[in-house]
Design brief:
The chain is an all-alpha fold and about 240 residues long. The protein has two domains: about 35-120, Cytochrome c-like domain (Cytochrome Bc1 Complex, Chain D, domain 2), CATH 1.10.760.10; about 130-220, Cytochrome Bc1 Complex, Chain D, domain 2 (Orthogonal Bundle). It has helices spanning about 1-15, 40-45, 45-50, 65-70, 75-80, 100-115, 135-145, 150, 170-175, 175-185, 205-220, 230-235.
Amino acid sequence: MAVALFGLLALATTGCSSLPGRPGPGPEVPRPDEILDFNTLYAQNCSACHGAEGKGGAALALADPVYLAIVDDATLRKVTAEGVAGTTMPGFARSAGGLLTDRQIDVLVEGMRRWAKPEALQGATPPPYKAESPGDAQRGTEVYTTFCASCHGPAGKGGQKASSVVDGSYLALVSDQYLRTIVICGRPELNAPDWQGNVQGRPMTAQEVSDVVAWLAAQRPQFPGQPYPGTASAQSGGAQ
């Protein structure tokens, strides 16, 4: 009798281990909040906008040595965790409505910092990430003409080498800080020069960066998404 019961128990145990849908042998799939591999976290959360390996895409290149030279870890963490209000940059931390833990945010910041290449600047000191004094839009007009018009056109509406930088939809989607960062760092993946490459032998000063950002910000429409002045719909009072 005991032998028979033992045989039935062994059969039942064997049968359960081969039930359809039962996970096979091997490591268990980790919980999303337990993933601490930088490459995985970056690919899942950042690469769609900032490109594979931080090389740039719809948004700026995070692996750009100029960008990593001007931004500190606290700023990297704040932007990654909280996002930037009023722009397309979301917050990824749980405290901001995202899905990542504080430790995962730290892993992303630490991983991005490993992309830094101080030697790539060849001893040059870029303007600071944050403006040290307010910009002047009127002075910015002259700064734009000197450093930017050759590519973006005399009024910023685009030229043979680059697109418009005064498009209302574009300016409505980016912050003044983003504009400043782009002026300093350029977009190397798009062959757009940094602060020292617009005019040969004439790098932009920190104040000139602030002034041209003020000029760009002054072109931002007051009510993004509304019909532009002079269009047929605006003149007729809107679509019928």
